[in-house]
C-alpha cells in the first residue's frame, strides 16, 4: 500500500459479526479516534462499512495505524464487513492475519451466531488464522436501567423502536426495551471463546474501554502466528501472548436527587390576611377598617409589638367618644357584616387592589356584658363546650383586658387603642362575637396605604407597583415606623436609584435581595415572639409529655388538615386544648418551627427524624417531608465524609421511611446500602436479612460492585497467578557437596570404616 515503510510489519485485521453489533463504531474509535456521546450513538447510526480507502485518503488515519507493540513497529489495517449472513466476504478474508469476531452484549442471538455461523465461515476461508472474540457495547450491562438512556432510546433510536428495515425483520428484540435477561454476562462470552479457541475481550465505544487494548492484543496474536511461520525473524522474538484484560467495573451509580416542593409561605400569609380567620385587631382609617392578627404583626414590626403589649387597663383613660363611634361599620346599617358606604366607595375606586376590610360590628349589648367579662377574667372561670376542655383565659399569652377600655396615644400614626366586643359572620355564615383590639390611625394614613403596609408586613412584598401610590405608602411607613418598608420604597422607587439600576432585571435583583433579608428577619422574630414567648396564643395542644401553645390562624393558613380541624364541625374547633396523641413536645415544636418560619429546625437529626416524618405525613405536609429528607441526607453525607459508618443507620431508616411516604429518603437509603453492600454483608448481615423481600431483591439487583464483576475480578486474579507461574523461569538447584559425607560411597573415608566394621562382624 501507499506510504508504507519497509521495516514495518503489516497486519491485516478483518472485523466480522452480526448487523448492528458495533463493528463500524469500534473501527472508527480505533482508526479515527472517534469519541461519541450517547445521543450521537443512538441517532446517527447508518448500516454501512468503513472504507479501507481511508488509509490512503486521510493522513491522520494512516498515522494512527502505525503502532509499536512489544518493540515491533506495526502498521494495522482494519477491514470492515457487512453483517448479513448471505453476503460473500471471501475478498475480505484473503491474506488476513487475524480475524476480530464481534457480538453485542445486549443481543444473545449475536453470540450464538458467533459459534454457529461465523466461526465455520472463518475456518472455511482462513483455516489457521487466529481469532479474537470481542463483546461490544459492554456499557449496556449497567445502563439498561438508566432512565436517561431509556428515554433517549424511546425517542430517538431507530433500533429501539424496531422500525429499521434491516433490523426489525431479523432482530425483533430491538423493537422493545432491553430486559435484564438480554444482557450477557462475561462468563457466557468467555465460554464461547473457549469453545472456538479464542481470547475474549470486551469494549465500549461510549466509555472507550478496551478499544486500544483489544487492537494491541490483535496485533500480538497476528505476530505470534507469523513468528511460528517465520521463526528466523529476530524482531518477533519478544512478542508476548495476548494479555489478560482487567474486568470493567461499572461506575458508581449516581445518588438520587432530592426535590423539595417550592415554598408557599408568602401565599399562605397573603391568604391569611385576606381570609380574616380569627383576627384580633382592627385598624381604623376613617370609617374603613382592616382586620389583622396581633401575633403576626408583633413578630414583624417592633412598633406594633410595643403597641399590642401596652398595658391599657393600668394607664388607660376612657375617652369621650362612645363605643359606637369606633365601630368598623356604620351603626345605621341594619345587616350585620356589610361594609359601610365609604368602604364600598373605596372598593369601587380601586378595582385592581383587593382591600381587606373587617366585617365586624360592635355588639349592642357590650355595655351590659363588660362587668361580667371583668369578673370572668378575674376568677379565670372554665367553660365547657362539646365535651372539650376550655383552658382558663388567664393562661393565654395575650393581654387580658376587659372590654370598653380605651387609651389615648401620643403617637404620629396611632391616635388611640381600645378593647371592644365585635359581632361578625364566621366561615359558616353564623353571627359570632369576639373581642377585638381597635387601633385608630391618623388621618394622614389613607386606606390604600394601610392595606399595602399590611400586605408588606404579611408577605414582605408589595405586589403590583402600578396600583400603589408610593408617596402615601412611604409616608405611612415613616409614621408607623416600618424601616424595612421605607428601605424597600427608597431602593426601588427613588429617581436616583432608578437611574443607577437601569433595566428591569436589576430592579428584580434588588427586590429579591431586600425580600430575602426581610424574610430572614421575620423568621427570627417569629421564632422569638410566637414560639419562644408564645405571645397572643389562642390554642393549646395536649401532647404526650406536656402542653404546647400555638396560634390558630397561622396553623390554619399553613396546614390544610389544621384548617379543616378548626373550621369544621369538630369539637376541636371550639376547644382551647386539643389532644394530640402519639406526639411528643419536641416533635411538635419542630412542626411549629416549620409552620411559622417555613424552615426546618436544627434539632432534626437522622436519629430523631422519624417522628417528624410521621407527623408531617399525618398532616399532609409534603414540603416539610422534603426539607427533613434533604437535611437528613446532608447529615448522612457529612458523617460519611468524616469517616463514620452510616450504613447501619440507613438500614434502620429504610423501611420506616417507606411506611411514612418519605420516598426520597428511602431511595437514598437504598442507594447508600447498595453502594456499601459488601461492607454491610461483613459487618451487619443480620440487619440485611431482616429487610423486606422486595428490598432484598432490589439490593441484590442493584448492588455495587455487581456480582458479575466480583466473579470476573476473582477469575482475572486467578488467571494472572497461573500465567505468572507458567512464565516463571525454572529454578536451578545446586547441590553442595561435603568431602566427608558426599560423593560415591566407595571412595569416602566413612565408607571404608563401614566396610571394616561389616567384615569384623562377619568374621565373628
UniProtKB/TrEMBL annotation:
Residues 537-604 form the BTB domain. GO terms for biological process: ameboidal-type cell migration; cellular process involved in reproduction in multicellular organism; developmental process involved in reproduction; hemocyte migration; melanization defense response; small GTPase-mediated signal transduction. One of its GO terms (cellular component) is endosome membrane. SMART domains: BTB, RAB, RAS, RHO. It comes from the Eukaryota. The keyword Repeat applies. Keywords: GTP-binding, Nucleotide-binding, Repeat. One of its GO terms (molecular function) is GTP binding. This is Rho-related BTB domain-containing protein 2.
